[in-house]
Design goal:
By secondary structure, the protein is an alpha/beta fold. It has one domain: NAD(P)-binding Rossmann-like Domain (Rossmann fold). It contains nine helices and seven strands; from the N terminus they run βαβαβαβαβαβαααβα.
Length: about 280
């Protein structure tokens, strides 16, 4: 059980829309200091997050670093140990979103996965979670009852053309969560995968021209029971709940926070969008 106002949360990929929202939410409730890891591309966003965390009377340390490889995880954990000390990290959130797109055998929009691109996608979106968990565990940085949380999406449930690398990496991530949950559960740690629906972030908007995104967003909202997209703040609120006493029974499993969105819905909409571009 995680209680009290002390301790740290580590957020990997903190300046993305979801990662930033999670950092802000955890600073508010359960009131954790934030160790945020990002690659330094969005300094204004990092500054804004730091300002909000400090505004909640919490410490915030932004670590500019690539988080995805095993070596990078070791370097990041060493920096974390200097800042947080042993036994003080109550939450780890894996929110890294850096992937390549393309076909496996045939070209998709002129792109096909080269081996290094596929390897990088898996390392970023799946393997890095294992690397960081291992480093925090081996260095005894984790607090008793720490929550280790990774994020996924409904694309793993369908076939969205060109996004197969992401879906495959997220499927691997699900297996990592399941096995880590069983490995670490007897010691009181909880390992959780959160599957949330499409949210409007900078990353998704880059993938679509403005007018096209407006249409795609409307179609996704129309196919969702609530008639809208979820928000990054809602995802942050869920992670806050899982970090608290109510999250103790969640482990080695996926929490469906998709709001009724399905991979089939995204499949149809995204694939139609690609046809329009042609």
């Amino acid at each position: 059980m995680i209680e009290g106002e002390s301790g740290w949360a580590v957020v990997l990929g903190v300046t993305g829309g979801t990662g930033g929202a999670v950092a802000r939410a955890l600073a508010r409730d359960p009131g954790l200091n934030i160790f945020g890891v990002h690659r330094g591309h969005w300094k204004d966003e990092a500054t804004a997050i730091e300002r909000d965390v400090v505004g909640n009377d919490r410490r915030c340390h932004m670590f500019v670093h690539d988080a995805q490889s095993a070596d990078h995880a070791a370097e990041g954990a060493a920096g974390l140990l200097d800042v947080a000390g042993r036994g003080n990290v109550k939450v780890l959130v894996h929110a890294i979103a850096n992937a390549s797109y393309g076909g496996f055998a045939r070209d998709w929009q002129g792109r096909r996965f080269e081996p290094h691109k596929l390897e990088s996608t898996f390392e970023c979106m799946a393997h890095s979670f294992v690397y960081w968990v291992r480093q925090l565990y081996d260095r005894r940085i984790l607090a008793p009852g720490a929550r280790l949380i990774a994020l996924t999406n409904p694309m793993v449930d369908s076939v969205v053309h060109g996004w197969g690398g992401v879906a495959a990496a997220k499927a691997a991530l699900e297996m990592y969560v399941r096995h880590l949950g069983h490995e670490l559960g007897p010691e009181g740690y909880r390992v959780i995968l959160v599957k949330f629906g499409m949210v409007e972030t900078r990353a998704i908007k880059i993938a679509f021209p403005d007018e096209e995104w407006s249409r795609v967003k409307g179609e996704i909202a129309g196919g969702t029971p609530a008639g809208r997209l979820s928000t990054v703040d809602e995802v942050g609120a869920l992670v806050s709940y899982l970090a608290g006493p109510g999250g103790d029974w969640f482990t080695a499993s996926t929490v469906d926070f998709s709001g009724g969105q399905t991979g089939a819905l995204l499949d149809g909409i995204f694939n139609r969008s690609q046809e329009v571009r042609k």
